[in-house]
Amino acid sequence: MEIIHSDGRAFGVSVTGNAEDEAMVLLHGIGADHRMWAPQIQTFADQGYYVLAPDLLAHGETSKVEKLALKDWDDQIDKILAHFGLSNCILVGVSMGGVIAQSYAMNNPEKVRRLVLSDTFGELKTFQEKMLGYSQVIGFKIYKVLGGKLLAKGMASAYKAPFAKLAKAYFSEVSLRVDFDQLVLARKAINQIDAIGKINGEQIPTLNLVGDQFGKSFVEINRKISQGIKGSKFVILEHSMDPSNLVNPDDFNREVLQFLDDTA
């Protein structure tokens, strides 16, 4: 774990692989930390990538924040690249991390060589999309009163399917340690994303993945992202759900690595 200090903030970055290899930055989901990428970090490094997995602002080992916007995460990614002497990277984001990845790719296209998005959203415009975003803000406020143990129990129930054992174990544990005030700030920030049609797919080859277990509406929310990125590849993963990298890591890893090989 390497700690980067900047502007009074500190955040951890897991660093794996050869610094001479192509850099890949992994962006985790809300309420998670870099450990969410356990099924990918060494696997991707073994395939010839220099893997950097930070704890994003308001999560994990980062300093607490009093306010948060998408630009703050953009700045965090910039600081990571600068710290390791990198001019660009492959950016991989799941769930909240996918929102942040879209924001960064939209605002810094020259710094993103390839983009992988999974189980995420690119805007909250329809009533259903807005409900998806703002219900979680309310949920975090309720769980602040009820406590992390109840959230952990809820996570264990959400991931009760036999194929979701990794996700169940991880979120049951990490939910006991979350800071709900920080998660409210994070959720409000990602709710501001407006990236549909604003990422240049001809400049940034893009893979969009989504699990099939959250229902047709969530699949369509992810399909809309892909439709807005010219030339992007859209894949529905069977027996998977947010976050697909933990629920179905074998298929997730295969699709990501194949995409990277095809677009190298």
Explain this structure.
The chain is α/β, with parallel strands linked by helices. The chain contains 10 helices and 8 strands. An 8-stranded mixed sheet has the order 1-2-4-3-5-6-7-8, sandwiched between helices. α1 links the parallel β3 (22-27) and β4 (49-54). α2 (70-83) packs across α3 (96-107) and α5 packs antiparallel against α6. 45% of the residues are buried.
Walk me through the topology:
Elements: E1 2-6, E2 9-16, E3 22-27, H1 38-46, E4 49-54, H2 70-83, E5 89-94, H3 96-107, E6 112-118, H4 127-146, H5 148-158, H6 165-174, H7 180-190, E7 206-211, H8 216-227, E8 233-237, H9 244-247, H10 249-262
Parallel strand pairs: 3-4, 3-5, 5-6, 6-7, 7-8
Antiparallel strand pairs: 1-2, 2-4
Helix pairs in contact: 1-10, 2-3, 4-7, 5-6
Please state the structural category.
Answer: alpha/beta
**Oligomeric state as shown:** single chain
The helix/strand series, from N terminus to C terminus, equals: EEEHEHEHEHHHHEHEHH
Average of pLDDT:
95
Counting DSSP H or I runs of 4 or more residues, the number of helices is 10
Radius of gyration: 17 Å
Order of strands, main sheet, comes to 1-2-4-3-5-6-7-8
Major sheet details: 8 strands, mixed
User: Percent range for helical residues?
Assistant: 40-55%
Proportion of beta-strand residues: 15-25%
Task: List unreliable stretches of 5+ residues.
Answer: none
Q: How many extended strands?
A: 8
Tertiary shape: globular
Measure the end-to-end span.
Answer: 28 Å
